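hey can u run this one w/ 2-acetamido-2-deoxy-beta-D-glucopyranose bound, need the structure tokens asap thx
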Amino acid sequence: MRVFVLSCAIALILSVSSAVATLTNAQRLARGLPVLPPKFGRALPGYVRTPTAAGANPSTSPVPPKTYTGRILVKSYDGGTLGHLYNWASGINGVNFGDSSEDLYVTFTVTRSGKGLIDIQAIDPAFTGPSYIGTTNNATLATGSPTAVGFGNVIRTPVHSPPVPVGQYNADESAIWTFNPTTYELKAHYVNINGHKAKTTIAYKIYNNSIFFVGDIGAYNAAQVDPDYLVSPITFYLDLTVDSSTAR
Ligand SMILES: *[C@@H]1O[C@H](CO)[C@@H](O)[C@H](O)[C@H]1NC(C)=O
Ligand SMILES: *[C@@H]1O[C@H](CO)[C@@H](O)[C@H](O)[C@H]1NC(C)=O
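ok here u go:
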């Protein structure tokens, strides 16, 4: 299929190559002409599509979204594995260093492109209350600021929403995550009260095995007087493997 489409593309290019306006950008560059927008890519949409998707018209039959289920693997700043997120009775937080039966299992749905912000929902949580995972207060994260925002179980909130007040002390955001379908990394994108997306780093405080979010890890650490309270950046990955001892 690919070879066929490619030869069609080459034939098309050859048949019209006498007209300067239809030169490929590589050819235009070789002749010192300015590059054109990628017309050929749009004229031949099948060229970049996979064999299974070829033939489907994306405007009438969109590729369905995909649902993933698994555990969240926490990796340290150097790429080493710390463990899985903990399914605590008191809520979600920390890395489970104990029995894998206490790992948290989550589910989420993403478009095939992997683009867009998503909610992540806990499956059979050990805690009571809302079952999405996200941010739990409405502090403002910013470069140069030592502020932090909590991580825990939250209500479902709209995409791009600033924190939604919950009860007397909490303010939640759930749709803060992006999923990379190639690397399986889950990244957080917190929205400040002013509606602007903040640069968000997931921080780990080894002192009490706690996870939260900061906008500037250097500023956060510079503001700590007790060296025990220093944090390091961590990253989240979806782990599709099912632990045999829990046999779900
Ligand atoms: C921040 O969250 C607290 C606790 O829910 C709430 O009382 C307060 O109104 C929130 N502030 C804003 C500006 O939303
Ligand atoms: C961890 O320690 C910090 C002190 O730096 C404290 O503010 C926080 O509430 C503690 N978190 C947990 C989960 O114990």
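Confidence is low (pLDDT under 50) at residues 1-21, 35-56. anyway lmk if its weird
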